[in-house]
């Protein structure tokens, strides 16, 4: 099971955080800070694993990847494979790249909702359900379409039309 | 302005999430100010009846909660409102807020059941997906129970997009509501034969989780899983199947034989490192008895170790440390790579290599490995340096210094550790120095030498972390002063002015040790006098006495040095230091006059002779290690009332002891009283009573209460008149605790291992008992696993009918068939066992009654399997 997905920039600002077990917000913030404080002390070109039993309890593992100004972090337990999780980060980043064509930190900052749509297609309730970015893209496009459709109706709310008609 | 027009204004001028994020980046107010203003806005907007406004406000709140730690539990009801909106966008925002902030105790959780059901039945697959996601995250017992029919329907959905998520949600539903297993299990298992990789991946993932919780319950599915293992070429699926088999093999060893070959096949075939690593891990953790597989796995590990990729190197080391306990040769083969990894730039790799090195330590290579490690410790950063020191310390002290043969070497090593610049493990080193002193008689001379070297090193006094070590060194040079080459210098070192840098508690140890040295010197001076005067032929046997030929002048000098060093301390503010100082000065006061007059020192009637003899008796009682459980072994004497209510005490000291809470009042007092009593006893036996009496009392006590306190050896048990009727410590230890970990000790070592006093228990009291927690977890999952088992029985029964219709004739199938029989028989046994266990309780539950019926019919079916 995946326990948490985080993205943060190299200054430690969280850009996305999802915990698959319920946790009070204070605890979430504490964990994000804890993870960042370990991440930022690590040199480049070392392994992508962290021992984080002290933060997430026994039998928890963490993999991360550093792209440009962002850290992508996955926390999971013993029923996932470490290298497969690294691949999963790759899948996530590839998908985002397709989504935003050359993804950068700002895309992630301003597309909070879409980020979640992408992530929810890949990880479902802590389980990895989709690893093909094409499939994810298909679903995300559908969701955007649906949202846009429901939005276009709401562009002219009933009450507003009356107000305009005056 | 009417309320509707307010809502219009709000809607028109409401800031969207994007506006909020932009504002956040441009704000000059400071983050917390900005957030509190945004929150104010949200609180206002979220109350509006218009769902668009409400949902936007909720969306902003979710954002702030996820990334800025803002509490959003107060908006739980608004989330329920938003989720009921017919518009997809609102629904999505609502569900997201719910999954993010709801938990078991959220009161409005009850209100969403119908909405979730409605969405699960929706024609729009994306709405269904939202509801499923929500259920998989926050599903409670009630939700799972009420929505099981919907989940069952969705498991049969024709859309893969919905079906895979329905499979995923099953895990949460089973966990919260085990009875759902009866409904959904068959449909779930059918998917193991699905040709769609997405579906297969999802279902294998679910079984992986179920197997983690209770491997036994998934055992009957082994044939289906085996098929997946052989046929699938999807790495994600294979990794999960391997994980399942690793769990299953732990409860059913015979399964290992079956899966070893296909796993090796994958290892040889695949280029995906993740799959190779998973195969390796499965082999080394669960199939470690299959030699060929282990050999192949170790070969793969070696490939990992020589890779440049630090991830592979780390995982390779990781796998090696799993394999180490059973196949040490695998580690030894890769020793070079492991040692090389110690200087890797990656801290993970270094740590893993260190753990591995420590796992291969034994009595033959301990000095070599320690030497390598000490060299690395000198070069490393402070954190890793201390990890090294700690590893060496704990490996060497394991099981009462089991792997140490040459204690002189080990004691010197401890001394070296103290000199490593980053060393912060002072307390552990202190403990071991003293512990070795008490346990290993033969190591004492070297201990005293090492302590001396530590005490004279001026650099150590300034290092806060090393103070405990100095304390131990001071104690050793006082306690074992008979091995000291130059007591005069020892005293000088113990009382040097720079000891002012030490904390008072350690300074007190220094002073007390100086006192012990003084007594020793006086005593050996007198006995030398005695022997020369009486012209007795008896040589003073102590080896040190010839070295320490004290003259009258040297003794006088010594007393003067001590007095000079201590007088300034008699006015310190620390009571401990002051008391010790006063003790020594008082003693010196008693003897000084006699010494100065140089009169009849050899005469046993003089004050100085008597006092010295007395003090020497006090210090001569040898200290031994005490078992952590020693107190429990002392049975309470007949007349002692431990649980008596000490009401009288209240009258006497009521005004001092103001109880904090009345409940624990008596407990506290009786505890402190018993502590006092123990101290009294200790003092009685060690100081105030004459020593001969004390030791005979001790012998008496031992006769009555057995061995609870073991000195290493009595100095000479016959001379003091006590019957030597208790076994020597070491014999006793050997009798009581024959070392189970090391049955074949080498009979003739080049250097005889000195006697190490070992207590039968209490030495290794650090391992917490784990059995209990295991039992608890089993209990947690019991209902789920029972449900799965009964579902499996029903399924197998169903299959039976299919089997009789179809004709299994391919070779592949035959093979599976045989494995099925094997597995089946095992599971049968298991079930019977389980059944027996549950038998007494079965009347409570209807479902369990069914279980019994099922297994009864199962027994009849057995012969049919042997088609």
From TrEMBL, chain A:
Membrane topology summary: Peripheral membrane protein
Protein localization: Cytoplasmic vesicle membrane; Golgi apparatus
Pfam families: Clat_adaptor_s
Ranges where the AP complex mu/sigma subunit domain occurs: 1-146
Chief subcellular location: membrane
Entry annotated with the keyword Protein transport: yes
Keywords per UniProt: Cytoplasmic vesicle, Golgi apparatus, Membrane, Protein transport, Transport
Domain of life: Eukaryota
Record-linked PROSITE patterns: CLAT_ADAPTOR_S
Homology family: Belongs to the adaptor complexes small subunit family.
Protein name, as recorded: AP complex subunit sigma
Organism: Camelina sativa (False flax)
Automatic annotation (TrEMBL), chain B:
Transmembrane segments: none
Segments of this protein annotated with the region Disordered: 709-867
UniProt keyword terms in alphabetical order: Golgi apparatus, Membrane, Protein transport, Repeat, Transport
Polar residues: compositionally biased ranges: 767-777
Protein species of origin: Camelina sativa
Upper taxonomic lineage: Eukaryota, Viridiplantae, Streptophyta, Embryophyta, Tracheophyta
Keyword Repeat: yes
Residue ranges annotated for the Clathrin/coatomer adaptor adaptin-like N-terminal domain, each copy included: 32-511
Oligomeric and partner information: Adaptor protein complex 3 (AP-3) is a heterotetramer.
Compositional bias of kind Basic residues: 829-848
Family (UniProt): Belongs to the adaptor complexes large subunit family.
Pfam families noted in UniProt: Adaptin_N
Protein name listed in UniProt: AP-3 complex subunit delta
Known function: Part of the AP-3 complex, an adaptor-related complex which seems to be clathrin-associated. The complex is associated with the Golgi region as well as more peripheral structures. It facilitates the budding of vesicles from the Golgi membrane and may be directly involved in trafficking to the vacuole. It also function in maintaining the identity of lytic vacuoles and in regulating the transition between storage and lytic vacuoles.
Location of this chain's protein in the cell: Endomembrane system; Golgi apparatus
Segments of skewed composition (Basic and acidic residues): 813-828
